[in-house]
Design a protein that fits this description.
By secondary structure, the protein is mainly alpha-helical. Among the domains are: 113-167 and 249-376, Lysozyme (Orthogonal Bundle); 381-432, no CATH class. It has helices at 5-50, 53-58, 63-70, 97-103, 114-117, 120-136, 138-148, 152-163, 174-184, 188-203, 227-233, 249-262, 294-299, 336-344, 348-363, 381-393, 407-420, 430-444; strands at residues 172-173, 213-214, 272-276, 292-293, 303-304, 318-322, 331-334. A five-stranded antiparallel beta sheet has the order 4-6-7-3-5. The protein has a two-stranded antiparallel sheet with strand order 1-2. β6 (318-322) and β7 (331-334) form a beta hairpin. α10 packs across α11 (227-233) and α16 (381-393) crosses α18. The longest helix has 46 residues, at 5-50. The chain is globular. The structure holds calcium ion. Calcium ion is lined by residues 236, 238, 240, 242, 244, 248, 251.
Length: 445
């Protein structure tokens, strides 16, 4: 049957209209669902905050401080890596699909290859700015160095690495970010404690709610202290009565000096020596638990780069081998100060970065590594994590199963390579990962 053209158009319009009502209705339902869910979670969050009172009181927080800061505090839904409750509360609305989807990472992160961390241009520009900061804050830095026995160049390098000397935006209200992490972050117990300490900082008047800004992970001020770091190490260096790591550069830098000093920094010691390894050196000998006196490394053929001698008086000092890219990159003998830098941020490349920039600042010269970062494969983190799980199941020590190649994973890789007669690298490769995963799935069959 043919339909008159005019009527057809009429029906068509009606259809479009009905469809749009349907779609709008659908979209509206989704919006309502999200709003109801969030409302239920916020309600549970405010109950959770109230439940914090006994801990806060025990930590010396006054009721007035508690109420003034936590009453009406809202969750920050914009933080990454949240673990949204499902359901919102017992018997409450389920987690809407649209929110669950938003929380999924858009791509599987690759793990960062060390070379990407050490871009020559970025290092040089950080060191250049670092040197101008050394001049600008010369007297204060000299006083900080004297008091804490930590080189100013190291403190300035940390300042540069953490916040680009304060140029990186700190977009979050620290209290809200920390409370959100405590309520529905990846490490809730840790941040629940941090929240109580954050209240203490506010109560003591070192910052106000307006000035107490942080990164999404709750790290605050020029050199990125968590509240507990603040509590343990922050100092008032400019003498105004406040420990102000957010807007007083002397306070922030002295606090960093104090943190390194208090955690065991040895003022008579460097952080690492770049070294050259003999051909086919056994890279499974890396890691802080395999420390040896420098003299023993020398016996094994390890030498400083550029034919520099090791300082005579340090030959008996324990040092350990760090190979962030296995045998495919520069090699370092690290001292106890390297381990102190890792307390700031638990990563070999972080400690090398900070130490290296400090060297560049102090030498007032570009100081490229002598070893080269050779091309390495980029593997997905979840693949490395599966690989680690298999290694753990067969009794190997890989450290944390996190999809990253820390020193324990790197040396276990070396052992597996030796076992299979593969060229020794101590660095993840798809050849080894595939071989290990394939064996595991064959064994499971
Ligand atoms: Ca101060």
């Amino acid at each position: 049957m043919t339909m008159p053209r005019r009527e057809f158009r009429h029906v068509g319009l009606a259809f479009v209209f009905a469809l749009s009502v349907l779609l709008t209705g659908h979209a509206q339902a989704a919006v309502d669902e999200v709003a109801a869910y969030k409302q239920a979670v916020e309600k549970r969050f405010s109950e959770w905050l109230q439940g914090l009172w006994p801990e806060a009181e025990a930590a010396g927080i006054k009721r007035a401080t508690f109420d003034a800061n936590l009453k009406g505090l809202k969750l920050d839904w914009s933080l990454p890596h949240l673990v949204l409750p499902d359901p919102a509360a017992p018997g409450g609305p389920a987690l809407p699909q649209v929110l669950a989807d938003q929380m999924k990472p858009t791509h599987q992160p690759e793990f960062d290859v060390p070379a990407g961390y050490f871009k020559e241009g970025a290092l040089s520009s950080l060191a250049a700015t670092g040197r101008s900061k050394m001049n600008q804050w010369g007297p204060q830095l000299a006083a900080i160095q004297r008091q804490y026995n930590v080189p100013a160049s190291v403190i300035v390098a940390i300042w540069g690495r953490e916040t680009g000397f304060g140029t990186v935006d700190m977009p979050f209200d620290a209290l809200s970010a920390i409370a959100t992490q405590g309520f529905m972050g990846q490490r809730p117990d840790e941040f629940r404690k941090q929240l109580v300490v954050a209240l203490k900082i506010l109560q003591e008047g070192h910052a106000t709610r307006a000035t107490m800004r942080s990164s999404w992970a709750g790290a605050m001020g020029y050199t990125q202290f968590l509240p507990s770091d603040f509590d343990n190490y922050a100092v008032d260096f400019d003498g105004d009565g406040k420990r102000d790591i957010w807007s007083s550069i002397p306070d922030a830098l002295a606090s960093t000096g104090n943190s390194l000093h208090s955690q065991g920094w040895d003022g008579a010691q460097t952080w690492f020596y770049e070294v050259k390894l003999p051909e086919k050196f056994d890279c499974t000998q890396q890691g802080p638990d395999l420390a040896r006196p420098i003299s023993e490394w020398v016996k094994l053929g390890v030498a400083r780069v550029k034919d520099r001698p090791f300082p005579e008086e340090k030959l008996g000092d324990p040092t350990f081998l760090v190979l962030p890219a296995g045998l495919k990159g520069p090699a370092f003998l690290a001292t106890s100060n390297f381990s102190v830098l890792k307390l700031y941020n638990n990563s070999d490349v972080y400690a090398i970065f900070v130490g290296h920039v400090a060297d560049m600042i102090a030498a007032n010269a570009p100081a490229a590594f002598v070893g080269t970062w050779q091309p390495v494969e980029r593997l997905a983190r979840d693949r490395i994590q599966r690989f680690q799980e298999v290694l753990v199941a067969q009794g190997d020590d890989v450290g944390k199963v996190d999809g990253l190649a820390g020193f324990k994973t790197r040396r276990t890789i070396g052992l597996e390579e030796q076992k299979r007669g593969l060229p020794l690298s101590c660095y993840p490769s798809s050849a080894l990962v595939d071989a290990v995963l394939k064996e595991a799935s064959a064994a499971a069959r």
